[in-house]
Structures are given as structure tokens and as C-alpha cells.
User: Fold this.
Amino acid sequence: MAGLGSDIAEVYTELGADASIVNRVPVVTGQRVLYDINAQATKPFIREHQLDASLPYDTLITTNDVIMMTATDRYYMVMNKTPELFENEVVEWSSVLYLCNIPLTAHIVRPVEVRNAATYNMISGWHVVVDAPIYGLLSERVFGSEVKQKSKEGGQFPVWAIDFITPKYYEIKSLDRLIMSETEYYKIDVIESFNYPGMNMILLTEDTREISDVIDGEVYEDG
Assistant:
């Protein structure tokens, strides 16, 4: 049924939105996507951040890719890719896209210890493991309006926790820090890899660790 797939693909050429796969090197351009706004009118977050999409049979887009819509300059994660079959042949694909809503300057650092070249003392710090841009969706409001609350041990006050969805290929680990801006950062608390193919669902919590900044082995003292 390649002929039917080709016929359907012509519709994407005429009516589809132009998209590029930005997580590839080099960037893959010229991809076409048809999409509908999510119909859940009573949930503005879902309407704003999720798209029901379809792709031509010969698309290069796959699960866990990040695509940019040329017309809107918006970035989306490809959460799944389900084949639409006709007479046992793939004629197009169905997909769900999640909007990347964190700043493109966001990045991930990991706690490390390095030796100070002057004093030879070991200093705790940070090492950049995922440089900007990192793509992802902060999604505490997708399944409800209340932010999750996680209790600490030993009778301490509870801390606020939110969900972060991002591709698995970043190889993020627990205790890493997500830096959103100079004043906003979170600790990677729990990583769940079974919710979506190619994606991690990460529980973020408040990060109060006071550690000197370490970037590529160079130590920058706090203050």
C-alpha cells in the first residue's frame, strides 16, 4: 500500500505544517505534520500544551524526537508514534505532541568534587552534564490543578514537587539539578522511565543545596 501512503503523504505536502527535528545533528528539516488542538476545553493547560498529530508514512520523525514548528517557532516532544494501517501496511502515523515550556537556556548540572589547584583541598561543586538547550514540559497541572506535596522524613516540613517530562537521551540522574534561571532551580528527585516510550517522567523538588559552582573542572566559589 505504498501507493496509498504516497497519496496520503501528498495531503501533508499541501496542508501540513512544516517542522524540523532539532535534536538531530545536523537538524532535519522539511518534515510535515498535521495536528488538532486538544478538545478538552475545560482544561486550559492541556489545550495549550498538547496536540493530537498525524505524520506521513515516510516521516523521519520518531518517538522522543523534539520538533520545531516553523510557523510558530514552538518546540514539541514526540511522545508516541502509532501506525495507521490499511491492508496490513502503514499509510500514516498518529502521535501526541507535548509543548516544551521551559526556557531554552535551561540546563542540567551534577554535584561533583574537585581539587582546588591552589590549596589542594577537595571542593564540592557542580559540573554541567546537559548544556542548553534542554527540552521538556513542566506538567504539574496536566492531571490536576494542585501541586504535589511530598513529605520529608523525620517530621520535617513537606516540600513542593512538580513533574518534568523530558527525553531519555539526556541521561539525567537523581540528585542532578535543573537550572531554569539564575534564581530558579530544582533537584532531580525521582525518575520514572516506564510512563512513555523514550521519555522520562521526573519528580522535581526544591533544591536548597549550597554548593560552589564547578563548570568543566574550574571552581567558582560562592559569593
Q: What stands out?
A: The first helix runs from residue 2 to 15. The domain at 2-99 is CATH 2.40.10 (Thrombin, subunit H).
